[in-house]
Specification:
The complex is a heterodimer of chains A (544) and B (288).
Chain A: H1 4-23, E1 28-38, E2 43-54, E3 59-62, E4 64-68, E5 73-84, E6 87-97, E7 102-107, E8 111-116, H2 117-121, E9 130-131, E10 150-158, E11 162-166, E12 168-172, E13 175-179, E14 182-185, E15 202-211, E16 214-223, E17 227-238, E18 242-251, E19 257-266, E20 270-279, E21 282-293, E22 296-305, E23 309-317, E24 321-322, E25 328-340, E26 358-374, E27 379-392, E28 396-410, E29 415-429, H3 455-458, E30 462-477, E31 480-489, E32 503-514, E33 517-529, E34 532-543
Antiparallel strand pairs in A: 1-2, 1-10, 2-3, 2-4, 3-5, 4-5, 5-6, 6-7, 7-8, 8-9, 10-11, 11-14, 12-13, 15-16, 16-17, 17-18, 18-19, 19-20, 20-21, 21-22, 22-23, 23-25, 24-25, 25-26, 26-27, 27-28, 28-29, 29-30, 30-31, 31-32, 32-33, 33-34
Chain B: H1 2-22, E1 30-40, E2 43-46, E3 51-62, E4 78-84, E5 89-96, H2 106-109, H3 123-126, E6 134-142, E7 154-157, E8 167-168, E9 170-171, E10 176-184, E11 188-197, E12 200-203, E13 213-216, E14 223-228, E15 231-232
Parallel strand pairs in B: 3-5, 6-14
Antiparallel strand pairs in B: 1-2, 1-4, 2-3, 4-5, 6-10, 7-8, 7-11, 9-10, 11-12, 11-13, 12-15
The chains are: A mainly beta (544), B mainly beta (288).
Amino acid sequence: MRRAPAVCAFVLAACAAAPLAASARATVALDGGTLVFFSDTLSIVARDGATLRLADGTLAHGDAAYVDLKRDRAVLAGHATVARGGAAAGADAIALDLDGERVDLLAAAGGAITTTRARLAAPLLGPPAPGEIDGERFAFPEVDDRFAYIRAKHAAITPHADVRFSPAAFPTSVGGLPVPSYLYTYASAAGFGATSLPGATFDQPYGLVGSPTSLTALHARWLDGTGPSVGLQQQLVSGDDAYLAASLDAPLRGSGTRGLSGYRRMGARYTATVGASSGFGVWGANASLGAAFGPAGGRLSYGYGSGGFSTFDASLRTPDRPLFGGATWRLRGDVGFDALRRGSLLTASVPDARRYSTIWRHGLDLFVAAPVVRGPLGTRIGTTVDAARTWYAYPHHDDTLSANVFVSRELSRKVALFGGYQASWNARVYPGAQGLFFPPAYLPEVAPDGTPWFGRSAYSGASTFRDESVALQLTPNLNTALRVAVHHYADFPQFHGYGRPQWSLETDARLRPFPNIGLQVGRAYDFGWGGYRWVPRWTFAITP
Amino acid sequence: MRHLLSLLAALAVAALALPTLAQPQPGPLLRFSGQLLDVRGGYVYFTTGDAFKVVDNVRLADYDTGKPTTLQPRAKLFARAVFDPATKQVVELDLTAHRVAPDTAYQAVKAYAVAKSTVQPAPEIVGIPLTGKEVPVSFVVTVPPTTPLGSDVYISTDASGWNPQAIKLDRIDGARYRAVRRFASGTKFVFRVTRGSWNSVERNESGLEPAPHPFFVRETDAQSASVTVYSWSDDRPNAPQAAPGAIPTPFNPNPFPQGGIAPAPRVTPPGGFPTARPNPFPNRPPGG
């Protein structure tokens, strides 16, 4: 029953997407002896004989073809012919609009002729008049196959949306990885970037069905802790103004999760979002409305979760205002409540705990940022300070004071040093009742391994989190970067040995082993964490 | 008799007029006004880029009075060129230092212009043909002060299928990240700035999601794109910035959900969950 809302939402989204996906037929088919796709320019070059079929029956052929997916334009060169119905025309080069009617024929001796596909099919209308040669129409750029992202023999193009290659291979200098079919999405609507899948160490989508407004994709994922996972996500997109993403994530080990994420822009000032997720035996849903008042902003949000918890927030934020010397400040105020249906939000140690099933609160947050200034020894220093207090209807308040200092030093154009200090001090203050020793809300009572954490009851007062870090960054060339960072965490309390590790060493490398494929690899070691001498972590990503 | 005399007089006048009528009538003189570049080698050059042939004894006159002038043709002066349609040459230049209104359409005298080479449209007007050459593009992103110290910043583009980690940027200092990538000229894309996930994406000055940034790679030697991120979508005001849940670990990948299991910020109630723990101070009220 708990999973019902997420499952229902996913089914609804899938049902809504099905008609869209079904109607999204590829309107252009390109065949050739070899097709080479370049992801940076979004172009396809066909060689050894190219055949282009348009949805209206127009058929074009040439020795080679260049298809510009961004401009929906195709150029066929060398013994080019175009035919529609019973009529045909030939030229040295032919330029076609993929989503328009225009056809240009270029003859080396006779100049250029501009016509339309409809006119091609009706020769009785008479021959079109020669016109001036527009070189842009017949541009056939030189390409370097080393930068090719995909090789194939057939491409089915849906303009402004995607292109499906089959059979597809991802070439490298040591071979290619073949797949029977690969859907490459290039829709410019930013909603296609939205996801409702939880974060993962590695996530490689594989498109199943696409259209200008929808995409169904499988995700091969790797999750830290649980290992490999398979995800399925359905996206519905309306330009940059709205999207809806629903997903299922099924790890091979452990519990699966479901997610839903939606966004709608209403004019220039307002946006609305909805979100829901379930997994690990709990679920939650939220909705929010954001508003812009010039550079200032506000937000209303409401969330409801399993166990009967709900929360409401209304917040207003000032724009960044100048303070002095280039520093800026910003103030944020919020009011809202936390509620627990048929329960109490306070521990049973409070005599009248049952009264507090709903607790209103209000808070203020002052944020001050100093500009990045020059320091000694050629360093550059940036500082921020944040102070917040939240008052609760039940007589207590939470205080948070945090500060960040960041120092950078560029040793050369290829080598840079960074240092950082981040500290946060948090306190839950019960005036006159501090003896009850209420710990902060984010300190749980049960450790992840199921054992009770006795330190929670013993803990009182303020908690501190400190992060001291040093990093070295090498950037020998545009395609290669290496970063090594050392963190020392000095937290109090360190939760049951499962808080942040005392020391952490992180390395990140960005390289391009092949001209067309980039890799991002990260390796981190946590020392002195959870009773282990060290615990390794990986991050991995492939980029075009 | 009087009629006869009148007829003879008319015939005499007509006879006298005949030679004049028989001669070709010169067409109306054409005038073209513009700013001078130079008069040299028998040609007058205007800033329109056109050159016209000038007769040897061209008359120089004042533009306003029409009388002879002491002004000599030079750059920046304005002039009205008077053409003889018969010879298609300039027979008179009326000079002035002030801007003058056009006398006739350029098309009327276009045929008189002298061209030494084929006409090339100005690249500023029609653009430079795109050759697809590689152009280094530098992305510089200014991040908000709330950006965590160890954060990675990425650029996500539509061309990469909106991969949130498409282009990784390197840190320059506390506020800026940078990456340089090579694109073929003519490449057109839109992009957004992320911190490696669509749960952490840029927000504009008002805290709302901005439209993607469009970018077009021109036919140039180098290009840059500068973006300022005012806040991140996962900024959590009033929340501890270094809470234990910020570090997922293999044994505890999502220990204290913040943004993972919604609702994000306040899913745990103040005071913790109700438990049946014994009250260590049963006689002490919270306010006392």
